Amino acid sequence: MKSQKPYKTNHFKKLDSTNTYAMKNLAELSDKEVIIADVQTSGRGRLNRSWVSAREDNIYLSIVLKPCSKVSDKLPLAGLTQYMSVILCRVLENYGASAQIKWPNDVLSDGKKIAGILSQASIQGESFRGLILGTGVNLNFSQEEADKIDQPATSLNLILGRPVDKKAFTEELIDGFFENYEKFLDKGFSYIEKDYIQRCCFLGKRIAVNALDPRETGIAKEIREDGSLVLENDEMQEKIITMGDIVCLQPD
Ligand code: BTN
Fold first, then answer.
1. How far is the CA of 132 from the centre of ligand 1 (A)?
2. Closest residue (by CA) to atom 10 of ligand 1?
């Protein structure tokens, strides 16, 4: 007998964005419901970027999570994007690709972006309405399409030299996410710390942090036990970075 999945999927041919749909319909969506679109007409990335979403054989999905009904600092909700980045790496590695993480949650392969995560929480006063974990994975781009993206990007088919089946990858990804989701909620970042750090591609290197104003440069020293990043800036001061974007200034 086929075992029951712990999640429900909701499939659409076309949406503006799975995150936007999930946010608009959050009240009606259940905990662990996954919104999947064949294509997105307004795919969104972090930091107001857009996410190229026209190909039906790439992944665009949003996982709706409602682990609590009241705002609580006991649950590691902010760390869920880092948890998802580790799951993405594991699935890519199972396919035979290399996978690296650029803090906080960009997933790269051969140093180029292959997957991204956009998380959005909905909070009203004390009540927590839900977290939307939007995930895009480049499975099947032509080299020309990958080259047109506004940052160095790649796709799993380009790495493996063969087309990639979207259905199988999607299932492996969502199953992998929910396999240890409860354990992650219970234990927090420490549960993935080792897996996360071993894939971090910038530790010990010179980076720029775009979240800080003015932008600061320095050495990425370490990842702390809560998933934040320690920057040793050019004045030799340690700064703890909890959000934003980094750029690696040092070639491999
Ligand atoms: C990033 O900038 O790295 C995050 C990209 C996130 C893209 C995914 S695709 C599915 C979901 N819907 C969106 O509009 N964005 C996310």
1. 11
2. 60
